[in-house]
Automatic annotation (TrEMBL):
It comes from Marinomonas phaeophyticola. SUPFAM superfamilies: FMN-linked oxidoreductases. Belongs to the dus family. Its EC number is 1.3.1.91. This is tRNA-dihydrouridine(20/20a) synthase.
Amino acid sequence: MTHDTTEKKDLKPYISRDTVDRRFSIAPMMDWTTTDYRVFARTLSTNTLLYTEMVTTGALLRGDSPARFLEYDECEHPIALQLGGADPVALSKCAKLAEKYGYDEVNLNVGCPSDRVQNSLIGACLMAHPDKVKDAISAMLDATHIPVTIKHRIGLDDQEDYSVVRDFVGDIATTGIRTFIVHARNAILAGLSPKQNREIPPLKYDYVYKLKQDFPDLEIILNGGIKTLAESQEHLTKIDGVMLGREAYHNPWILSNVDQVLFGEPAKVMSRFDALDNFMPYVERRLANGERLMHITRHILGLFLGQPGGKAFRRYLSENGHKADAKIDVLIDAINMVNQQINKTKETH
């Protein structure tokens, strides 16, 4: 069921502050963590905290229809809205919208290194202006009862000392915010693309571990370069939570073990085919509402990564899902191709 926003105006907050479990989450990723991806992720894990793509305050406050940026499917809970912006008044209004629409958390982006947003003081460049960040966070905290969190880097450009991120966190924490999601790399504001900023600056996990030691009362979440649940478990012995990004998108099946491995609960699905069966009704609803199949299936191309038939699954959906008349049958045919390949593999063994 599509999230109904009309009944939220006078409701009390969806949850009380500090009740969101951030042990494991999926990072906000532009053009990737759409509602279609998030609904599929939810078929694999009940407990994973999902984040929206970054939404700028300007996009939400222009015109009178923020719903197209804020609507989501009810199954997506727990879900957090990530905001991009610097103006305290605008951010306070958007934080109120996050609560009105039933989000479980609202997050401020202070980590995006893209030069496209720097002129608007959005993203990592804000780390150079801690007073502006404090004003923004204070306004958001005053405006809402849902948790307010921040996602940031460990430094900018050639800042190498741990003291940079230590002093930043200590300063921002004076607002009363208690959850810091730390991408354990510097942001290079000139000369590197966003993709290069995710790969070239070295990871410094020890800096994030030190933050937890220096600020034991704060919730410290580690982001950057994590690829397995085994790595996640190791990190969780030193900090409060882990956030996966590209790995959770390109290899979504990793999410199927999160509930069991990290939360001690039964796995939500036993096979990739179970996940697809659970996803089908949503796909059919979206298609009935005019959505193109490729806009949905592009998020599940990695489901059979490394499995028999996985390449055929990706290729068939890529070649046929974009067609204007593509319907659910295209997805069903792709699934059948995987089944056939699996059966052939079994026969040869």
